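Onboarding guide, step 5: your first structure request.
Type a short instruction followed by the sequence, for example:

Predict the 3D structure of this protein.
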Amino acid sequence: MNKAIIAIGAAGLLASACASDPYGYNNGSNQTVRQGAIGAGLGAVAGAIIGNNVGSGNAATGALIGGLAGGAVGAIRGSQADRNNQQRYRDNRGNYYYCYDNRQDECYWENGQRRY
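The system replies with structure tokens like these:
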């Protein structure tokens, strides 16, 4: 059981290390990072509980697998939320580009290249 507690604590520390966005999108919160961290934490807890109850008694492995799966699912969900928060603009030549929260200093063309 001590290994499970250590694995859950480590997953929580790793998730909290990623919980901020240095680029300041969405007023300092990046949904991909935030929801990925929440998913990793919840997945680690659920994996530890399931791994301990299945009978194998290996809660640490369950926490690791659950953390990875939860983090991936949360990051995918958060990425979709980030895309929904983007603002779409059109330049004078008819080309579209995207910016975050009406900010014109971090914009990208539709193909993903940065617009300067």
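Each response can be followed by summary notes, for example: Residues 2-85 form one domain.
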